[in-house]
Design goal:
single chain; seven-stranded mixed β-sheet; about 15% strand; binds pyridoxal-5'-phosphate
């Protein structure tokens, strides 16, 4: 396990600079300015146990190290670990639980996170409770007995609720539990959970970090040496590691994260303006709207409101399903966070596994991942699809 010190030579550089340089100094042997894709599975040793820092590629390799150093720097943490998917990263965190430990999960979260906790960790002896984490006071007063970890998304997927990270961290710590924040929607550019008190950050790097819908990956970042040790152990012992090529793709994505996020946010703002005044739309869920219940907290803990937008259409599930089939530029597909705009129906798609659970999604809800195309084209596309619903 390599420690990525906060105050390495890029520690005081700005976010955009670290995205391009942290972990990515020119290769000392060739001078290559792009971190080479190191495909070797094994590394020569001068004597038994005497090597240059790498022995076997599952345990670590130079390309993965570069990615981990960059992600650690961007999240402002000491240790990052990269995984083959966001869910593999989540699994490595959950494997730190002791027998019988309870999990508190926010009552709105990615369906796959719910499935992992309910269908894998539940039967393995970990009770769990769904809690509205937008209300830390109630969590404090009704703290579920035996909780070792609170698992929060903010903004949540797909209801776009905002969780006050500092407040929930304070409650969790007072009860002797750790706080995990899934920072996939916000990215470290918009939100820094570790600085707000979270114990570990988890990402689906498949989304904004990669940013181009061409790599599945995940990562964790923490400042807690015990957690880092445990997660690093699972990374090697269970082996759900990303390939060097996958690491290269995520690292390549990170280099433009800041500019992409600015554009995602700007485009989302323009799309939200249309949705807010369109008669076919009942509600718009985006934390940048002043009337959003989490607007104040979002302003405090986020640089901007992000590129994910949800809406509830008039006419319920039937209208929602028609809408997602009528856009031209917004492609009907699962996933999010890439340069191209996507639209989906969570109740039947990404969150189908949560049907009938406390995390079930409103069937009238449609989720947009607003891309970085020309904003006017995105607005025109949504307008024609909404107009066609004939809900006036
Ligand atoms: N967390 C969030 C918020 C997600 O949206 C997803 C996937 O959609 C995941 C985690 C899981 O990541 P992956 O699909 O890379 O395993």
């Amino acid at each position: 396990m390599h420690e990525h010190e906060k105050h390495d030579q890029h520690g005081t550089d700005g976010f955009e600079t670290r995205a391009i340089h942290a972990g990515q100094d020119p290769d000392p042997t060739s001078g290559a300015v792009v971190a080479p894709i190191s495909v070797s599975t094994t590394f020569a040793q001068d004597a038994v146990g005497r090597h240059k820092g790498w022995e076997y590629a599952r345990s670590g390799n130079p390309t993965r190290d570069a990615l981990e150093a960059c992600v650690a720097s961007l999240e402002g943490g000491r240790w990052a670990h990269a995984f083959a998917s966001g869910l593999a990263a989540e699994d490595a965190i959950l494997r730190q639980l002791r027998p019988g430990d309870r999990i508190v999960l926010g009552n709105d979260a990615y369906g796959g996170t719910y499935r992992l906790i309910d269908k894998v960790y539940g039967p393995a002896g970990h009770p769990w409770t769904a809690v509205d984490l937008t209300d830390p006071g109630t969590l404090d007063r009704h703290w579920p007995e035996g909780t070792a970890v609170v698992w929060a998304e903010t903004p949540t997927n797909p209801a776009m609720a905002i969780v006050d990270i500092a407040a929930v961290a304070e409650v969790a710590h007072r009860h002797g539990a750790r706080l995990v924040v899934d920072n996939t929607f916000a990215t470290p550019y918009l939100q820094q959970p570790l600085a707000l008190g979270a114990d570990v950050v988890v990402h689906s790097a498949t989304k904004y970090l990669g940013g181009h819908s061409d790599v599945v990956g995940g990562c964790t970042v923490t400042d807690d040496p015990e957690l880092a040790e445990g997660i690093g152990f699972v990374q090697n012992a269970a082996g759900a590691v990303p390939s060097p090529f996958d690491c290269f793709l995520v690292l390549r994505g990170l280099r433009t994260l800041a500019v992409r996020m600015d554009r995602h946010c700007d485009n989302a703002r323009v799309v939200v303006e249309l949705l807010a005044e369109h008669p076919a739309v009942e509600r718009v869920l985006w934390p940048g709207l002043p009337e959003h219940p989490g607007a104040d907290v979002a302003k405090r803990q986020m640089r901007d409101a992000g590129g994910m937008v949800s809406l509830v259409v008039r006419g319920g599930e039937e209208a929602a399903v028609r809408l997602v089939e009528r856009t031209r530029l917004f492609t009907l597909a699962e996933s999010l966070g890439a340069v191209e705009s996507l639209i989906e129906h969570p109740a039947r798609m990404t969150h189908a596994s949560a049907a009938g659970s406390p995390l079930a999604v409103d069937p009238g809800l449609v989720r947009l991942s607003v891309g970085i195309e020309a904003a006017a084209d995105l607005v025109a596309d949504l307008r024609q699809a909404l107009d066609s619903l004939d809900a006036r």
